Predict the 3D structure of the following.
Amino acid sequence: MSAVSGPGSGSGSAGGSAAPCRFAHYFAICGLDAETGLEPDELAGAGSSFFSPPLFLCLPSLVSIYTGENFEQSPLKRTFKSKVLARFPENIEWNPFDQDAINMLCMPKGLSFRTQAESREPHFHSFLITREDGSRTYGFVHTFYEEVTSPQICCAMQTLYQMHHAEHTSSGCTSSSSSSSSSSMDSLASSLDEADLSSPGKGTAGGASPCGCCSGAYDASRDTLYVSKALCLVTPMPFMHACRRFLAQLHRAVMASQPPPLPLESYIYNVLYEVPLPPPGRSLKFHGVYEPIRCQRPGPGELPLADFSLGRAFQLLGVENLVQLFTCVLLEMQILLYSQDYQRLMTVAEGITTLLFPFQWQHVYVPILPASLRHFLDAPVPYLMGLQSKEGTDRSKLELPQEANLCFVDIDNHCIELPEDFPQFPNKAELIQELSDVLLGFGLSPEGGVPLGPASGQLQGRALRDLVDDRKNGNLGGEALAVLERLQALATRTGVTVGPVGVCPRKDGEGEAGGRPPTEEDEEELRDAKLNVQLREVFANRFAAMFADYEAFVIQSAHDLESWLTNREQMHNFDKASFLSDQPEPYLPFLSHFIETQMFATFIDNKIMSQWEEKEPLLRVFDGRLEKARLYGARAPGLRTSGYQRCSTLRESAQAIEQRLMKIDHTAIHPHLLDMKIGQGRFQQGFFPKLQAEVLLAGPTNNKWSNRTATAQRRKDRYRQHSEHLGLDNDLKEKYMQEARSLGKSLRQPKLSDLSPAVIAQTNWKFVEGLLKECRMKTKRMLVEKMGKEAVELGHGEANITGLEENTLIASLCDLLERIWSHGLQVKQGKSALWSHLLHYQAWEEKLEQQAESPVSNGPERRKSESGAAMPLLRVSLIQDMRHIQNMSEIKTEVGRARAWIRLSLEKKLLSQHLKQLLSNQALTKKLYKRYAFLRCEEEKEQFLFHLLSLNAVDYFCFTSVFTTIVIPYRAVIIPIKKLSNAMTTSNPWICVSGELGDSGVMQIPKNVLEMTFDCQNLGKLTTVQLGHDNSGLLAKWLVDCVMVRNEITGHTYKFPCGRWLGKGVDDGSLERVLIGELVVPVGDEEAGKQCRTPPMQRSPTQARRVSITSLSARGIKPNGAQIQEAIGEAVNNIVKHFHKPEKERGSLTILLCGENGLVCALEQFFHHGFKSARLFQKNVFMWDFVEKVTACLEAADQMGDLQGGAPEPLGVTGEALCRYVNAINSAPRSIGKDGKFQLLVCLGARDRLLPQWLPLLAECPLIVRMYEEHALLRDRTMVSTLVGVLQTLHDFNITLESSLVKGIQL
């Protein structure tokens, strides 16, 4: 919370005066100005949609003014403008009085009229105003009803009622046949009106007809008219209890039969000018009209002041709902609170922001949004706003501009609507349990109770309250309990308020500090304060546990404040990747989102700036707590567990507050008689007197604490001037700070006072600029993170992004696009503005398509594969991509479809192109959006699309990796080597496609067909293709160049090179080959990102960096020993790196084993070096032939029992294992050919940690002399032992082989 614990904070520069240390800044009165008359409030009232001059007696003008008025509402139910009738003092330099805002927030619904027949209970509410710099001013309002004495007002109201009644009666007659519920309600109301008008005599509060009350009838001859009046105290800090009691006592003095001990001016003067703020860590007592009032302020090491009842907030929503709402606030979603009662809105808003310690809400914060500012719900930024609901209004009828990222909190019905894809708060269940235990300790239900109606309708009778307390304490039994429950039920049902029992005004000075027993209000205040601090400590303890080591990850990169502020935007201030890697797995979904928020960024900014200037108060308290925890060794540093530790400081924090409130530290000056004019402001029961302005406009010039404050202020000013000389120019620093803190957010606060079109236009322009800036920041971050990761795979530096972070950034981009699309909507349709626009576009295009009767092609043909005409073209079509999403039955909501469409477009590198195409239909955009909308600002729109285009430079698999269960159509094309006659085969071919998520199963390919399509559950990134045939028919040999497989939704095409024969008696006799895939780079003129594109993720990481071993051998250049050695080292190194990545981000191990530059390939080169492969009788000799001969030799020697030189025992075990593996591979039912068998042996040896044992065995076999030249690497003992050492590094990892490799092997 921004309300701060230092003196004068939140109040701007104080000049030389003491006002920042004053308890209250202003006292104001709002109500009906009898001189200007009734002025309809066209903004506050939903029923009135017009603007007119004030209304007085003249009937013709009334009729002309009200032409076209909606007469369905009785005049008593309509809204009229209130005015600020008086304010004291006139103005304060450091906190100027904002008349419009105060008037609007004191009476958000305008004036309210009642008759004697209706309830006129006073009620209390509070509000706050947040200034541009984030500081806050609090307002506390006591509203009561005062009799209208002006005959003109009564007459105007009578005339309005007669017009309403006449209109109502006629409309009731004409629409009686209508079946709509509204017309039946109208006729009911009008009949009630008639019944009421016919009842004779002037009603009284006791005997009023309920009918008249229901219909809002008014007859000046028999009814007394009352109008609302508000007393308001404006304070720099949220002393809610103290202000409520002071205002309630003022009202009590007005309603009492006897005048108060002193004129009301004395008490108001006292609270404005003679009551100081309590010093930090101290309590203060000052005097109201009848009773003393206490308040206290936390010390420097405690949680900042929070006086709004958290217990009440938990009762309104229940613990679980409140924790969910708290999580939404932490993740900076759009929060809309909804209630009939203003104080409930304030209680929940202030309560939830109080719990954020040590963080602070950084965006729009308007706990009570006046009806005239409803357009602020259109703001495309995170906000926390409270909206007053009209009685009986259905939630479904509430038109909200955007709901994709909205958390809607219906306070009165105890329910909450959460956004989709919502991460849970860490240890949520344990946190809820701990909070429930605290609440139960204070006798409150964790589920939250249905309150007894709005604040005004609570049971206020002391006798009844005592009964309620007795029940809580278990002191009521049987009969008494039943009576209480009946009483409560009756009160709830009828809305009756039990008046105060036995409260009589005490004489001034009676029962002072020592002797006065604490009143019930004192006890309630103490209980609230203790509960508040205990609930807040529980949340603070959670943050202290989660961010105990945050300082270790703060990056201090600048040497001085000026250089840090100037380069703030370019700097990384927090090592997010390392921080996340240090967290327990269950915390990650929440934390990865939270560390991207503005409140976390500001917290880290404050930490960095604390090395050059005084620590921000919340940060100082938080750091102090962490330091204390480390000192007492509560947790070993670096130890990360997701275990839950309960808060251990609950009792001592409650005791500190209790001691302060029970033992008062300071007492303010007593109210005293002022130098007033005699005879003015005479006491009249029930009417608030006209105060004497002369005595209230200026305060005393000499009291001890104002002098003390002035001295302190002068000292502060001197220090500030000194620091300005030393360091940065203050204005420049403030400018930099505002810029630094406004990164990613556009507007802190709507201006409540000025609602001119120019100001609204300027506000919207700020939104547009803010959205563009946010888009630039987000795309830049996504690029930097992604390129950083891929640079690492190329061997540069360290990775700084995880799949979790990438997902968070993409989710954040989806949220931004939703906010851009919901800005300036003409009419909201559906929960997702983007999807709604897409549907309109789809309908538009399909209509054109029907007219033209031609297939829809929304873009150039592209996606030709490297192989030219082999793979048919895939059309680029925005509509087609939409249809893919619409066909996905897994996605149920519009928001989900929009997000899926964004992910798909991003993966296809078409996001910018698709959105450009969508916005090119200007007629549609004009129809859907207002002139000021972001999407209709041409220059900003172009820049926005350009920023999105930059994302084409990197590869995302954000659709494939998220929607893992959907069925995807694939297309496979087999490309034979056409120059030879064996392009086709007479045998029966088959294919099986495998990916990271599974395989397609074996599929028969129809004869003489080289292309097929198949539907299959998402395989993820494709890794291998098994291709084979059954060797039947005359032309059973088949020479295949490669296989191409394409995902028909994402357009990703994979190439599986082969270049070998399949057939018996040709090549290595293979009837089946396992082909390793690589992602094909699309070619085409419009591939803007081709030159700057990152290397394909499917190839091994080093491919782009050095000459490939396989490419050397393919060109007939034999690699030398050093190149082979380096290739093996590189292949092993890549496998080690693979296992050091988080499990979800490892990719395919098959490629690292069997792909180009894989381990198998490197070992083949090693075995080929110096191999005598001269053709004996025109027959090729393969590596597998050598392995088989070694096996035969071992088996023969084993049978003879005299292996040369008498081998030691372990060799027997190793030799036996080698023989067993070779025989298992040979006896498998698959015909994978000799090279395939060698590949399988290497993979199985690596998996079972046998390769390093087999190598010496192969090297020492007598056959080696016959089959290898003398310079061969296999005959070099040093080289073999080095290779054994390298391969042994793989023993630390559990290698799992893809089923396509080991199918049919029995070991």
Notes: The CA atoms of residues 1128 and 1238 lie 16 Å apart. The first helix runs from residue 59 to 65. The chain has a mean pLDDT of 75.
